[in-house]
Write a structure and sequence with these properties.
The chain is α+β, with helices and mostly antiparallel strands. It contains 14 helices and 16 strands. The longest helix is centred in the first third of the chain and has 66 residues.
């Protein structure tokens, strides 16, 4: 192959092979070492989060259990069950008890599990009812009471979650006196749980479901945690807890983002990118050293031999010192292609001019603004004159685009650009488009008052174009908002700071109103 005859090319190929080998080793480390470790850390983090969820659920259960314990050990409850305070339900079991949503239903039963009283809020209409039996006004609680009575035999003083007929947290406690172990009955509290339940603010929402154990399946009283990936971005976390309903278990499912795994892979990729850039820089340095030490002398000798061959018999001096001190390859190419380089320079100058213009509107772009603004500030302040900057934003332009379509949106921007070009015609004025619907005008020798006046004039001129804007909540025609900032010789600002002040002024005026002008230094 001809290109292998060049020492430089051979050297580059050798370095490229080494680079590929190193990157292959790094990829092997990622897939064989890093990813398994990241997956292990992800599962550990998911287990920690699952424990936090379990603790939150247990905290809710303990609160309910504390409430039912207080009611069960209250002297008034004991006296009611022994017939000494028949008015106890009317005076103490009131809507205020249920206002904090700690419980939705209270059932008081005698030692034979017969209902002595029932009270709670109707889950359909939210009304509070209190009755001696689940009938009449309390008819809504009949199914709940029947199901809970079937579960009471398997429900000890530990709160559990029932699954039938609705998901509910249930806690029961014997009605006793503190100085006696005799139970006058039981009091049971139930808190209804929605199908999408968030046990605590800031935690994930749990989707509740249930499974029925098959005959012979082992009923585990301890909560279980299951973690499995759904896709590359999500894990499914399932908490399996014992149920108050016989032969049922409660499943609580939520989804976790795999941000930790992605962050770890991203960090490794950044490390790989840094290593790649370092290796490329090292390769370039080695190539430069190889060229300076090996290729330069060989090239000079080759040139000298060529000159000798083309001028046989003539006395030739040694190559001049400047030719020995540097490589002449680029200089030789410049002499041979002088005309071509001139044409390329002209084309590059034309392309450079195009890169400073916005393709849609023909105005200057952000690159031109960033290059020209510091020069304008320096020159104008040197003459002891201020510089004003106006930042313009089209009001509700997204609504305009969504309603009329992007072609009409582009035409609207062109109209705005033409309006600005007609207003600002001084050679020193700089009109640019810096974003989708944002324009910046730089006005040398303009103080704040004049800049505010001209900005208001621009708003008026834009409104006078009468471009319909049906979805706009501000005006039936397209309007603009403007923020003004000033850099004076006494308080000079950098170009970046001046743009930032104008942007802040624009943000404030858009926040308070539209089709208006504002500045950060206005009273």
């Amino acid at each position: 192959m001809p290109y292998l005859n060049s020492l430089r090319n051979r050297f580059i190929i050798t370095l490229a092979i080494m680079l590929v080998l190193v990157m292959g080793i790094l990829m092997f480390i990622l897939h064989q070492l890093m990813i398994p470790n990241l997956l292990s850390e992800e599962r550990q983090g998911a287990h920690v989060y699952a424990n936090v969820l379990q603790e939150s659920i247990d905290r809710d259960a303990r609160n309910l259990n504390t409430m039912v314990y207080q009611w069960a050990t209250w002297a008034g409850t004991w006296e009611f069950m022994n017939g000494r305070r028949p008015d106890f339900p009317q005076t103490h079991i009131t809507p205020a008890v249920f206002d904090d949503h700690a419980a939705d239903l209270m059932i008081i039963t005698n030692p034979n599990d017969a209902i002595s009283w029932i009270a709670g809020r109707n889950p359909v209409n939210g009304s509070f009812t209190s009755c001696a039996q689940p009938a009449g006004d309390c008819q809504w609680s009949l199914d709940l009471v029947r199901e809970m009575q079937r579960q009471l035999s398997s429900t000890d003083t530990m709160p559990r979650i029932g699954v039938r007929p609705d998901f509910a947290m249930i806690s029961t406690w014997p009605i006793t006196r503190r100085d006696s172990s005799f139970a006058a009955g039981k009091i049971t509290l139930m808190r209804l749980l929605p199908g999408q339940w968030q046990p605590e603010a800031g935690l994930s929402t749990l989707t509740l479901s249930s499974i029925r154990l098959k005959k012979g399946d082992r009923h585990d009283d301890k909560p279980a945690i299951s973690i499995e990936p759904i896709d590359d971005d999500t894990l499914r976390l399932t908490l399996t807890r014992p149920s108050a309903t016989p032969e049922y278990q409660v499943l609580m499912t939520t989804r976790l983002k795999r941000d930790g795994l992605h962050a770890g892979i991203a960090r490794f990729n950044m490390t790989m990118l840094g290593s790649l850039l370092l290796l490329i820089a090292l390769m370039m340095a080695m190539l430069w050293v190889f060229r300076a030490i090996v290729l330069r002398p060989i090239t000079e000798l080759s040139r000298y031999a060529s000159a000798l061959r083309q001028s046989p018999g003539e006395h030739l001096e040694a190559p001049p010192p400047w030719l020995q001190a540097r490589s002449d390859e680029l200089g030789n190419m410049a002499r041979e292609f002088q005309t071509l380089i001139k044409e390329l320079n002209e084309r590059n100058a034309h392309l450079k001019a195009l890169t400073n213009r916005d393709a849609l509107t023909g105005l200057g772009n952000r690159r031109l603004l960033d290059r020209q603004l510091p020069r304008t500030l320096s020159l104008t302040h040197r003459l002891e004159r201020p510089v004003a900057l106006i930042m313009i934003d089209v009001d509700h332009f997204k609504l305009y685009n969504d309603f009329y379509g992007h072609p009409e949106g582009d035409q609207c921007l062109k109209t705005i650009a033409e309006t600005l070009s007609d207003i600002f015609q001084r050679e020193s004025d700089l009109v640019t488009r810096v974003g989708g619907e944002e324009f910046v005008i730089v006005l040398p020798d303009f103080d704040l008052e004049r800049a505010m006046d001209i900005a208001r004039g621009v708003c008026t001129a834009m409104e006078a174009q009468c471009i319909p804007h049906v979805p706009s909540p501000t005006h039936k025609y397209v309007t603009i908002s403007a923020g003004v900032a000033i850099s004076s010789p006494d308080h000079p600002l950098s170009g970046e700071a001046l743009i930032k002040q104008a942007d802040q002024a624009l943000y404030q005026i858009k926040k308070s109103s539209r089709n208006a002008v504002g500045c950060t230094t206005c009273d």
